[in-house]
Amino acid sequence: MAAGAGIVWQTPANPPERQDYIFRDGRRRYVRPYYFEFISHVKNRWTGKTIVDLFTDEFKGRPREYYVHAVKCGRLQVDEQVVQTDYTVQSSQKISHFLHRHEPPVLGGDITILQNEVDVVTVCKPASVPVHPCGQYRKNTVVGILQAEHGLAPLFRLLIFAKNADKAESFRQQIEASLLQKEYVAKVVGVFPDGEQIVDANIHFNAREGRSTAEVCDGDGKAPIGKQACTKFQRICTDGTHSIVLCKPVTGRTHQIRVHLKHIGYPIANDEVYLSDNFVPRSTMGARINRATTLACSLPSSDPDSSADISSKDTEVGEEFSIDPMCTNCPNLAPVGYDADEEGLWLHCVRYTGPDWSYECPYPDWASLDNVSRKKLKS
């Protein structure tokens, strides 16, 4: 069943296009808001909840009132049918959430193609840009941008991207055999110790909070939770306040380098997630903000007068987009919680090496290494 007359609903099958992106001051890349159908299937732990309670509990980026209106207006459907707000979901049912999608912005730097070979394309990923579609990101990803701007698709994720399944399988075998090595540089707080520092501490990732913790045996006989993880660190240089550190992860856990640096007392100097123990995930901020806008129980129609094009003083020429009366993010371009100007995380991959290949990436501006330091890094 259609969720609104005159609306073209995108799905993951719709590829990103060059005109989907908006740049501001050359510093931030936005995605023009678009209509999208999110599809999920009822998990066992969701069974027995009402459709409104389910979305209020599990998807906290929007207030309960929004989900009530969405059900009444057909923006939330079960098995392609409009239901009542007290409808109780059952295991494996299909749920469609039709919404006006605002993706978070990322830093506006180009994704530089370092090498483009027959089977492999190697790119330099800007900070803050996710590799592949995840969470709120779909078009504002390395895969999406490469497809929109360079026509590169399909790609098999590595950041050294395989262009075909055979090459991807070859890389997978090399990874499983521990034949690949990544090297990063990080800018950390404090004077990092001289000499190689090896951190061997399990990593436990909390998906709900979006961050990891380091776990070690505390001597009471209890095995630490999380997955085994090891990282080798080497100080490159220091100015007495910060240090540039070479990081060699032996394993590959979520946020491993960031968590291990925090664990030993030298967190990355601009890492908001791990500098403080009071981190609040931005994905939950929308539900905490008291919105002055009244949510209207109406759907955009095909009548051009039913939606407004905005061109505010904060919007450059050519950045107009339609306001959706059900959307909790309009008239802002970015979703709630992503309006602040950000700097990329001071953690950057500089080398990726395999049995018979090696790729290097340019150093970021914050890693101001002198010639002696660069020579030491390459030794």
From TrEMBL:
InterPro entries cross-referenced by the UniProt entry: PsdUridine_synth_cat_dom_sf, PsdUridine_synth_RsuA/RluA, RluA_PseudoU_synthase
Segments forming domain Pseudouridine synthase RsuA/RluA-like: 158-263
Coiled coil regions in record: none
GO MF annotation: an example: RNA binding
Alphabetically ordered keywords of this record: RNA-binding
Annotated transmembrane regions: none
Superkingdom field: Eukaryota
GO biological process: enzyme-directed rRNA pseudouridine synthesis
Cross-referenced PANTHER family: MITOCHONDRIAL RNA PSEUDOURIDINE SYNTHASE, PSEUDOURIDYLATE SYNTHASE RPUSD2
Name the record gives this protein: Pseudouridine synthase RsuA/RluA-like domain-containing protein
Organism: Leersia perrieri
